[in-house]
Amino acid sequence: MIGRLNHVAIAVPDLDAACAQYKNTLGAKVGAPQDEPDHGVTVVFVELPNTKIEFLYPLGENSPIQGFLDKNPSGGIHHICYEVDDIIVARDHLKASGARVLGTGEPKIGAHGKPVLFLHPKDFTGTLVELEQA
User: Fold this and answer.
1) What's the fold here for domain 2-133?
2) Buried residues in 40-57 as b, exposed as e (16+ CB within 10 A)
3) What is the pTM of this model?
4) Element holding 70 (H helix, E strand)
5) Is 60 left (phi over 0), alpha (psi -120 to 50) or beta?
6) Catalytic sites, residue numbers
7) Where are the domains of the chain?
8) Which tens digits make up the pLDDT trace of 60-89?
9) CA 109 – CA 77 distance, rounded (Å)
10) What pLDDT, in 10s, does the model give residues 36-48?
């Protein structure tokens, strides 16, 4: 059911410093910041030959990323994102298998402009999983 790894998301306490480190130290291609108000984050994508890294930075007072950074002040891996061919078919299969879909269970539009869902980390070895329709 799952396809390729789309990205690994890292919550960062300082977006500019994270971008500079990956660009200047690692020589990565770092995109421009993009506000995603529906998700309460500012994102920056780092393009790699085989996938992406997504930096997450809090946007607004109710950002879920702020809570993560309060517990992890240095930042850290927040979630991994896999592609699926059909997000509704994937959701229905996962729910029938006992996996918990977070939120309302209805896809939202993610940073790539495609439908996304998040799966409960307790159902996936302690890892928050995002599914994105390919």
Assistant:
1) 2,3-Dihydroxybiphenyl 1,2-Dioxygenase; domain 1 (3.10.180)
2) bbbbbbbeeeeebbbbbb
3) 0.93
4) helix 64-71
5) left
6) 130
7) 2-133
8) 888 999 999 999 999 999 999 999 999 999
9) 21
10) 998 999 999 999 9
